[in-house]
Amino acid sequence: METSVERCTILDLPKISDPRGNLTFVEGDRHVPFNIQRVYYLYDVPGGAERGGHAHKQLEQLIIAMSGSFDVVLDDGVNQKRVHLNRSYNGLYVCPMIWRELDNFSSGSVCMVLASNKYDEADYYRDYQQFLHVRNHK
Ligand code: TYD
Predict the structure, then answer these.
(1) Ligand 1 center from residue 3 Cα (angstroms)
(2) Residues 62, 49: contact at Cβ < 8 Å?
(3) Which of 5, 69, 77, 115 fits 135 for a cystine, CB–CB 3.0-4.6 Å?
(4) pLDDT digits (tens, 9 = 90+) for 52-85
(5) If you take atom 23 of ligand 1, which residue's CA is the nearest one?
(6) Closest by CA position to 103, among listed 66, 134, 65, 56
(7) Among 85, 96, 66, 118, which Cα is nearest to 5's?
(8) Which of 44, 51, 70, 73 should be mutated for ligand 1, with most atoms under 8 A from CB?
């Protein structure tokens, strides 16, 4: 299946507004287009740090700024786009075969990622030239 940065869009998650505090929920296969198999989060990110710097062969993800803000730079080998995340009720859907980098973390920010599969190092491309080669020779 061809994947592109155009397919990576911001999803609006349900938000129950309440004077006692707002509530957002995510159900697999309903609010995200995959079954959620794993959740991980980045926190205590020092100023100026960059995360990511890889692509996944099969994995689908939803990236949420639980607190604070950061940018996600997406790259399908041809087109790039930078997405700023700063709302707990928004999630950035990232389809397979997209190189991503995360930067511009605000202090105290928390990045939560919902993933369609368990951790598998064999699913990663960690070398950008190799990723480009695979993308452009399909
Ligand atoms: P990595 O995916 O490279 O982090 P990021 O994209 O946020 O920069 O993972 C960093 C390290 O953590 C790497 O050694 C693999 C390990 N890791 C797990 O063991 N399980 C996981 O679910 C994730 C996401 C990473």
Answers:
(1) 23
(2) no
(3) 77
(4) 999 999 999 999 999 999 999 999 999 999 999 9
(5) 119
(6) 65
(7) 96
(8) 51
Contacts of 30 (CB under 8 A, 6+ apart): none
Three-state SS for 2?
coil
132 CA distance to ligand 1 centroid (A)? Answer: 21
Protein residue with its CA nearest to atom 22 in ligand 1: 119
Please name the residue whose Cα sits nearest to atom 2 of ligand 1: 52
Helix, strand, coil % (nearest 5) of the chain? Answer: 10, 40, 50
Average pLDDT over residues 39-52: 97
**Cα separations (Å) of 76 from 48, 54, 80, 85, 133?**
24, 11, 7, 19, 12
Would you state the structure tokens that stand for residue 114, as one six-digit string?
Answer: 């919902």
